[in-house]
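Researcher: Re-running this chain for the archive, since the previous output was lost when a drive failed. Same request as before.
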Amino acid sequence: MNVMTHRFSPVLAKAFLIVFLCSLTAFAQKNVIAKTDTAPKPAPAKRKVIAITAENPKPKPAKRRSPSRKVKLPTYGNPAIDDDQSSDDPVVRAAVQEALGKINGAVIVVQSDTGRVLSIVNQKLAFQDGYQPCSSFKPAVALAALSEGIISEESNSLQLGKRWKLDLDDALAQSNNLYFEKLGKTLGIEKLQWYAHQFGFGEQAGWGIQQEPPGGFPSEPPPAREGGVGKIASFGQGISMTLFQLVSFTAALANGGTLYYLQYPQPSDSVEGFVPRVKRYLHFGDSAGSIRRGMEQAVLAGTARRAKQPDVSIFGKTGTCSQGQARLGWFTGYSKDGLSVAVLLHTGLKIGGGPKASEIAGKIFRKLADKNYLAHFSPQPHLPTAPPALIQLTPQF
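Model: Regenerated structure tokens:
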């Protein structure tokens, strides 16, 4: 019995091995079937074809949502919609409104030799606040530097690079920042502030114009990394200037140095009874000659050349910069006929800045000249003037 068991054991081992391999193969096949046949891949659904007919129109694609954008300031509208026109000269106002059109901006027109306000268009913007003057402040910087002897009528060329010099006329005409940064740094903040107040910046320019904001002038310069006092002189950084202050100073340049209070008479006030009020005498002397030449060159061939008119002598200065979300465009200037104008564009889009503002000013002078109206505002020395000592306000520092 033992012999037979020993004899047939290899045969039995081989049989057991065959049975084991067959069982293993069956188990593997069962698992494969479980992973495939029990969870078959679904067949793709048949697409339903619908004929495009009047009853079954082609569906419109869904609109894509545009990303949210910040609300920008208006660039166009009706700038004169809320104005009280009762105190305006109707002819001057009509010329201003036509020239300004639908651009969001404000304009003040003043008689240079009396300080009488002839028109304020977009009074909401004009009375709302002060604004950064940008480069329109440069004539005041130049006058301060001339008064201090930093430059003179005969010698006003500054070295701006190894092989680059520029004189005051060209610096004003081209609105060169480096030139005025250098003047500002030489003047320093205290002197620049003092002259700015003498010229009427940082204080109300009007007499009895209650709505006028006072504006402001910085007592400290920006940090050196931001340009220091040079940034104030070249770009007006930190200054809050009103159209009233700018046009008042411009009128003083036009008339030779008398800073008048601006007056906006009521409709019942007659022109014959108007009495100019002197704020202070600035005693420009010969200092203003270079500034006038620079402002004339700005109109003839510089940044304000869009204001140029073939038969009207215009002197002007532009300014362009951004303040918050607003794009600012300035023009301040005057004609030899006796009108001073300040234009401010306050827009959300870049539509030309100072050059565009000068174009609007040129249109105003053009329209008034075509009506032969500028002759009404030629210098009138016969008008009575109140003694300045009775009303002069001296800035305190």
